Amino acid sequence: MRYAMAIDTKKCVGCGDCVVACQTENNVPHGYCRDWIVESVDGTYPSLSLEFRSERCNHCDNAPCVRCCPTGASHIEEGGIVAVTHDKCIGCGACIQSCPYDARYSHPEGYVDKCTFCLHRVQKGQSPACVDVCPTRCLHFGNLDDPNSDVSLAIKDRKWKVLAPEAGTKPQLYFLT
Amino acid sequence: MKTRRDFIRISAVGTGAAALSIKAFGSNGFGLFKSETEGPVSDEDLTPYPTYCEVCFWKCAAWAYVDKSGRIRKVIGNKNDPHCNGRLCPRGTGGVGMVYDEDRLKTPLIRETKKDGSQYFREASWEEALDLVAGKMKEVKEKYGPEAFGLFNHGTPGGHFHHLLRAYGSETNAEPAFANCRGPRSSAYFSTFGAYIGSPESTDIRDTRCLVLIGSHLGENMHNSQVQEMSDAIDNGAAIITVDPRFSTAAAHSSYWLPIKPATDIALLMAWIHVLIYEGLYNKEFVEKYTFGFEYLKEHVKNMTPEWAYGITTIEPEQIRKTAREMAGAAPAVVIHPGRHVVWYGDDTQRERAMAILTALLGAWGKRGGLYLPEGISVPHFPQPEYPEPEWTWKDLNYGKYPLATMGITTELLKASIPRYNYEHQVKAWLVAGTNLPLSMPDKPLFKEAAASVEFIAVMDTMPMDITGYADVILPEATYLERYDAIRSAPNREPNIALRMPAIEPKYDTKPGWWIAKHIGERLGLHDYFNYDDYAEVIDWQLKKMGTSLEEMKKIGLKKFPRKSGPLYLGDGEDFTFNTNTGKVELYSTDFADHGFDALPKYTKHPEPPQNFYRLIYGRAPMHTFSRTSNNPNLSDLMSENSVWVNPKVADLWGLKKGQEVWLKNQDGHITSFPVKVRVTERIRWDSVYMVHGFGHNNKKLSRAFGRGASDTEMITNVAVDPIMGGTGMRGNFITFLTEDPALEGKEVKA
Question: Which positions fall inside the 4Fe-4S Mo/W bis-MGD-type domain (chain B) (predicted)?
Fold first, then answer.
């Protein structure tokens, strides 16, 4: 079992629905977010290209945040989901520094928080809130080990990239280009 | 827009860091954290209540999920609803923020004047506020007749007040949604096809092979099902042609982006029509069977070649030909999107006509992948007496102008409120329901003069919008998640209805719109028009007539009905009579000719920016609806202010830096109340600037929105009025930059 997400940049309009849905689903306090939108523009008018990316924790196979956690609060759940046990976290922030994707933040209550791929939903067979809400259906989630899962089918015949591959983290967000 | 960098800044210096130090070294010593904020709650522990969204006019059906403590945790789309297919847009998802915005209007407020002449609002009871409104309505009726009481309305709550005013004897109403938005489209498509384009628009984007967007920025306007279907169209490999001076989100997803010089769209459209006709690419069967006036059109566009259009539009002739051929190759599965906010240059009905004509030449009307034949279901009228016949209505305020207007024109209602315009019929008092006029209408000086002229203004809203500052009495409305409302019934592929019921009791001392209207009505002796205690009775009566019930609708939220008008598309060669003078699709508009307007559209040159000025183009951001969401805690979190988009070449000329605050000044010398940050970007042409509409609020009670960004509306003082239907063209305004605070400058001069 290997959970992963594919993000179709040919369809994403950068509306931020994934961000709001995550906030309401996971009760993320205002002023913070577990996922976010990056807009990247290239070229000179009128020869331009524009890419929107819905970004979040990459749930890396080789996760530096887990390796550097002094208490074991940062750990790996079934299916490769990187999670933080709030009660074990001392808020030292080592994981925040180690993450090449800026995916973690200090929750106002002191612990470090991040995307969980909506573990509480996934365990019940549902998709993450961001995937279920996306109006363009540009987010695909599922088990990479299952060739018929939504995510496997999404990346099968498409070109894709991952972010900061040079960091060696083996990230599990696949951006379809 | 929310980015990770914004977040880092917040967490490093904000409450996160402060809380960390207290907690880490608190009484527990070097402790571990116990989570206090409740995490996610399982759907099984939440109770869903049906509603339809009121954050925008798309009105997506949804479920509000309420937890055991009575708090709405989230709002999720209804899977059966064709407006959203179970997926709300960010505004609908963030709709919960409308309920929990602590800046909400909480109690009725009445304007008072102190002895020194200064004014303030005092809290009042509903009894007192309703007595005041009803008393003024009686007074106006006695002094001037009920027609002198005008209504500005928008959205679902507006309907209850339209009913109240009709019962009282006034049909002097207007909503910005017509003359300040989509009116030209209604008049143009009706004149051409004898049918309106409706809302949601009957665009079959899902099955199209070619989608053409003329300045329409789908994806930035989150017209939900259309954005979803554009995504389907991308999956299906459809060609997308976007015409926009700005590299919009839609442009970025398009096969062809035509970076047109602003204000020249009609020239491009006419050149496309020329290519279709003179290259013989138009749908000859459709044109022959269904249309009127082809020979006139052919003669009319004879010289409107792509080369002619090139000089005007800056789009190369080969691009014009190529895109015309692309459309013809995909026909009839082509959507020429009619757009929505289409009041640009004052000849907008003619531009919309050109788009309708193009649709007809491609044979795309009533065809799969073009415009489908929508069908709605009518909701039976709850029993009531006939409305009294007013002596005059909004129509009489036009005095023979704008003959094809189908709804009241807001600017005419304003002018009728100002004695110096000397209108025969004068408006003396207003009720404003659910529309923030100072930010939703152009020509703010006109609005201010009108507001100062009338004897009385009552405003109903959920938020202390700028309009409330002009009110004599403010009626705080419960949000859509706290009230019953009229049944939603909008034409679609399948007729359907949606229920809105309260998910929670109204917070604070707020009341549903229907309740406010009824209780004013009761005070005016209009009980027979409001013959119910709870609006649920009306809904249940209507639903039972429609073969369902409130009980059933509470469980399903949305119900579909079978089509009765026939198939979704016109059959090949099927006989069809259009509801026009000739019974045909009118390429040549007899209606326009009869009224003395050009029967065929033509390009007119519009004024261009003077030296050092740039055309102001405005639009939408996907997470906001006009000015109504700027203070929403969930949505302002995503985007808290607008910026002014400036091409790097222009930024260089002015020495403008990214993020620098500037004030904008328009051609008439008006300056924005607040500064706005510069966004230096290649995404905008050098002759234009772009702003997202709806920011620059001036009411301090909006703690998150006050003074954030600048209002494009303040810069729109030049209005090009469409003679056909009274539309207010707003894209003929030009701005320049002030890099120093104009207020400080003034003070220094005085000192």
Answer: 46-103
Find the residue in A nearest to B91 (Cα).
A17
Q: Which residues of A touch B34 (CB under 8 A)?
A: 86-87
Q: Does domain A3-176 have CATH number 3.30.1490.20?
A: no
What is the tens place of the pLDDT at every residue in B592-610?
999 999 999 999 999 999 9
pLDDT in tens, B272-300: 999 999 999 999 999 999 999 999 999 99
H or E element, residue B540: helix B535-545
Residues 6+ positions from B455 with CB-CB distance below 8 Å: B136, B140, B428, B429
* Pairwise CB contact (< 8 Å): B247 & A45: yes
Q: How far is the C-alpha of B284 from the C-alpha of B533, rounded, in Å?
A: 59
Compute the average pLDDT of residues A32-54: 97
Of B1, B94, B228, the CB nearest to A135: B228
Domain boundaries, chain A: 3-176
Distance CA A55, CA A151 (A): 16
Q: Give which of B127, B101, B103 is closest to B519, Cα–Cα.
A: B127
Domain containing residue B632: CATH number? 2.40.40.20
Question: Quick check: A24 and B253 CB within 8 A?
Answer: no
Total Cβ atoms within 10 A of residue B497:
23
Asked if residue B543 is part of any domain, the answer here is no
Does residue B648 sit within a domain? yes
Residue B23 lies in a domain: no
| Chain A stretch 137-156, residues whose beta carbon is closer than 8 A to a beta carbon of chain B | 137-138
Alpha-carbon distance A39 to A18, whole Å?
A: 15
SS3 (DSSP) at B470: helix
For the question of whether the overall pTM of this predicted structure is more than 0.90, the answer is yes
Residue B446 belongs to a domain: no
Residue that wins the pLDDT comparison between B236 and B39: B236
- Which domain covers residue B655, as residue numbers? 614-750
Interface contact A19-B90, CB threshold 8 A? yes
Could you tell me where the DSSP H helices lie in B402-475? 410-416, 437-440, 444-453
What percent of the residues of chain A are helix, what percent strand, and what percent coil, each to the nearest 5?
25, 25, 50
Residues 25-84 of A with CB under 8 A from B: 25-27, 29-33, 36-39, 41, 43-46, 48-52, 55, 71
| Strand, helix or coil for residue B671 | strand
Beta strands in chain A (DSSP E): 3-8, 36-44, 47-55, 74-76, 82-84, 105-106, 112-113, 139-143, 160-161, 173-176
Would you call A24 and B96 a contact, using CB atoms and an 8 Å cutoff? yes
Chain B positions touching A48 (Cβ under 8 A) are 247, 252, 257, 682-683
pLDDT of residue B750: 43
Predicted confidence (pLDDT) per residue in B404-437, tens digit: 999 999 999 999 999 999 999 999 999 999 999 9
Please check whether residue B13 touches A, CB under 8 A: no
Count of the separate structural domains present in chain B? 2
